[in-house]
Amino acid sequence: MATQSTIRSIKKPQPISMGTTIKLPPQNIEAEQSLLGALLIDKDAVVEVAEILKPHHFYKTEQHGNIFNAVVELFEKREPIDLVTVTEKLKQNGVLDRVGGSAYLAELVNMVPTSAHVLSYARIIAEHALRRTLISSSTKFVEMAYDERSAINEIIEECEQSIFALSQAHTKRDFIQLKDALAQSFDRLDEIQKSAGKLRGIPTGFKDLDNKLAGLQDSNLIIFAARPGMGKTSFALNIAQHVAVNAGVPVGIFSLEMSQEELVDRLLVAQADIDAWKLKTGRLDDKDFDRLSHAMGQLAEAPLFIDDTPGASLSEIRTKARRLQAEHGLKLIVVDYL
């Protein structure tokens, strides 16, 4: 039978230097040990944590990460999971001695009486792993900021992408039971029924298109395709203008070719309903000017944002869109063109 000295002999986490302060990286060794013990005494416990944890999430990756990896490998092959099979798998992987041998595995088994809290252990481990990743990323960002050879825009973009990726990983969606989805659908359909004849989504300003789409819906990806000179830009601008001005919904326009001035002129012409040729040639009469002034006031109040960076990359558009969403609650993005 293994003794408590087995665990005490394991190398303790080494402190790291953070500025002038010495701190241990976020970790919970007891949670790691308890989780592994739970997996060894309950072959079904791994089902609850396999989607949450990966071997690299363990602070003691070489030790606990390898043990967890062995458990997952057995689980994926539908093989029994217990002290004997995990020991054999670690031996096959050539890491049994590295993890502390069979004596350490036996010690883990004796640490927990039940697997009831295995999910809580997993969440603790995952959260500490995320904190360590944040610290590591922040250190990298500091080094990049000190390196004057790095372009500041590239640094900012990489920082935003890294943080966004961490956020996405932290907020992964899980399965939803059909009965819960049905309850949500019933509420949604009931609301539609009460507003019979009204669009479910945001009106585009084009009746035929709205009849086809039932308005613009959340998460829709809509592509307008046509040959050059067929009016794709004007069509997209008209929709963006209608959504922002009439519905008051925040819209971001990314124009990779047309300048801000050209876009604004088109928006003014459409909103004021005046002749574009008169605007371009300075032939507006007093009535046109009155309509133009009124249109400017309407557009000025609209949550419409324009970016005319020539040849902007997809990552640049994504970064700017995320920032716009965070600051203004962006709901619609128009990219001219793909």
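The above is record 1. Record 2 follows with the same two-line structure.
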Amino acid sequence: MKGFRDRFLESLRDYGELFNPNTNTFYARFKIISSQIDFCEDVLERIHEIEYLKHEKFDLILSNQIDYCDAALAHYFEPKAFAWISTGPLHENNNYVLGIPAMPSYLPTLEDSENGGEMSFPERTHNFWNWVLATFLHRYVSWKVNRLFQKHISPNFPNVDEICAKSSLVFVNNDEFLDFARPILHKTIYIGGAGLQQPKPLTPYFENIMNKGNRGIVLVSFGTAVYTPSFSIQNRKEMFKAFSEFSEYHFLMKISSGDNGTIELAKNISNIEFVEWFPQSDLLHHSNIKAFISHGGFNSVLETARRGIPAIILPFFYDQFRNGKMLEFREMGKIISKKDFGKQSLINAMKEVLYNPKYIKAAERMRNLISKKPNQPDETFLKWINFLLEQENLPELIPIGAKMNIISYLSLDVFSVFINSNWS
């Protein structure tokens, strides 16, 4: 398929600008979801190119939770069974559609939320606003996707909310012990870490690096999507000055390909080493890794938890804030707000994580909980998939709440009758 608009990539680039303080505005978030709708329309205008998939007679389609267009397309292809799968914690709007209780009073929202597990009144107010904003915006997405499918496919195409609510299972790429404890449905299956391979031996090159540093190695990576030269020169200088204060540790930092400018900035600091790639999961398993400085992408957070390594999180956008707060809530790390980022904030966080034994103790406990829990993710995922393929559908797991409108769901009609009767 060709000829797609670039608006989604452009909005994502603007949204994810490293130190942009305005990613949580209504306009910024509306812009990115509007681009997703455009992308959906581009696909539907080319539906003839993938029409052949409808004749494949799929037994099962797994659809990502982020985009309702995927779920509607899955329904269009007429599989025998349909399941939703998340790339991280469940989104507020997914909870709404599925009939999972909303708890913004104590559950941090997924998008751009710097709130933790225990919130003050101002934080709960902010979290509630984030929940309202996310719910409203994604209700708009649902409405637009419905309109698009009714325009391009059929005027009688079913409501996408109903399609999602009828998903037989909901797989969540998170871990019960790591995530904030929350209410879920019978069909919510946690599979955080599924597919994560067992650590492999390091090459001699990386094994040699692991032997550096009198007190160990600190791993530094801000993900594959972050172009390291997009850090300002001042930000990089502040970071490297902070690293130089911990001369007993060796810092191994992943940078973008060809980023000679970053190497030049740290050329006189002996305890920093740069590579353009490293086997992150394998390195995190090494006994000489003492901490991980990360952007807080969910896969990195999950690998950190499964390997039992304390972390320092510098989040930039979307779920990274919540992911960092999740680690902080479990006392496995510290989060640095991008608006506070600098030499001193980084030094303070590193002193806390490297020298306070509670962080390594909590990280090791988390590793133990995840590795020894009765239901391991790979086995759990495969067993449920096989069960679903046998049964083809599981309507018994759909709660009545998923079929109710918001007035009935929240008992606002009951409450209004109660208020009116008291007034009269």
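The first strand starts at residue 60 and ends at 64.
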